[in-house]
TrEMBL record, chains A, B:
Name under which the protein is recorded: Helix-turn-helix domain-containing protein
Record SMART domains: cNMP (SM00100), HTH_CRP (SM00419)
Domain Cyclic nucleotide-binding: 32-80
Sequence ranges assigned to domain HTH crp-type in this UniProt record: 135-205
Length: 212, 212
DNA sequence: CGCTGTGTTGATAAGCTTCAAGAGTGGTGG
DNA sequence: CCACCACTCTTGAAGCTTATCAACACAGCG
């Protein structure tokens, strides 16, 4: 189920609406169907990746199949530098996703541009440690929704490109617990479920207080 | 209890036995008594720090006092770059600790040296996410012991500079659970407690299998 | 229009936390 | 040097949160 291989289809190259990396060779946008692998753990690391549309999950597996998603990447976000020589994680397209690949001549030349990205990722990861280590189920989901809302421009209505299973594997919860918490938040009128993957935030303050 | 301020005592400057950062202004070693603050959340970030002796905890707090330690730093390790403009975390000396401060002229100039450190930190943090999100108490403690052993040269006997409370706050467990797991590992003859802060690993394979 | 995958809800169980008491350790002062 | 004291750690009992197992509902798609 995880890390399946599907041929990539090249889309015609077009200007990215997002910030480009200076000095990097911008490749055409590659299309990844839902569930396809972008890179795998153990693979030689090289290029960076920028999401043009769709969403990506980066995760690690335990031997028995337990999965922890360490990050989601939405349109406009850059990923793939969580690697030294080889990748320590898997990256997969969640839904149909367009990704621009940046081939980097030398990591050293790009380091002044990469460092801020790496630091932002480090801060995000360490903040997520607080969520996983010290917050309960409802606090975790609240923090997740606040984060997703912020990354989608702070709008009341947010789109969740990922399944409940993905959310659970990101928050260290089971799919059932995620579902129950959504129901509880709905009962408290903190959120409204417009569709399975579409949520309206009704009481942002309540979520903020919960999420820390 | 956390983040208390105590005057620092300067030790005479001496060559560090550890790798230095090129182009950084090496300061004399500062001495931090047990429990003293090195930097605080919200403070302006600037220098980097290298542990000469002792150990450091880096953590975040929730409003109600729950604490998540995101990393321990032992002798020879560098920290303090988990910041953009201001620090997002607290750093404290665990026991009596000597720290060499590096004042960086410009982050950009140092970026090629800083990037590998940042990436290592990012990988460590994301691996710790797997522990907190998907492993149970005994697996967490096993992973912690394996990590500590590796960072102390892979010896059978390891010194734990931190309290059970610190270990609990690092692993997302209570002090009581940490203590019970230590007892269980002792009963399984996986470890032997030489003192409260000194442990001998008897069955490394068992710990490795548990820790993932 | 049925089928398949995803999500929800319910009942039960497991694991961890909480609350409480007691034991051990290390440091200090007599 | 020993005894006491404070603090940390360990152990026990009970409760709570979340996981697990199971059944059902719903949505999207061929």
């Amino acid at each position: 189920m995880y890390a399946q291989q599907i041929a990539k289809i090249e889309l015609p190259s077009q200007p990215s609406p997002f910030a480009l990396l200076d000095g990097a060779m911008a490749q055409p946008v590659s299309f990844f169907p839902a569930g396809t692998e972008i890179y795998a753990q153990g693979e030689k690391a090289g290029p960076l990746y920028q999401v043009e549309f769709g969403a990506v999950r980066v995760y690690r597996l335990l031997a028995d199949g337990r999965r922890q998603i360490s990050a989601f990447h939405l349109a406009g976000e850059t990923f793939g530098f969580e690697a030294d020589a080889t990748h320590h994680f898997f990256a997969e397209a969640i839904g149909a996703t367009g990704i621009r690949v940046f081939r980097i001549a030398s990591t050293a030349d790009m380091s002044s541009q990469l460092l801020p990205l790496a630091l932002k990722g480090l801060i995000r990861a360490q903040e997520h440690l607080l969520v996983l280590g010290r917050q309960n189920a409802i606090e975790r989901v609240a923090a997740f929704l606040v984060d997703m809302a912020g990354r989608q421009g702070g709008l009341r209505q947010i789109e969740l490109p990922m399944s409940r299973l993905d959310i659970g594997d990101y928050l260290g919860l089971t799919i059932e617990t995620v579902s129950r918490v959504f129901t509880r938040l709905k009962d408290k009128s903190a959120i409204r479920l417009l569709g399975l993957r579409s949520i309206e935030i009704l009481k942002q303050n309540m979520l903020l207080e919960m999420g820390g």
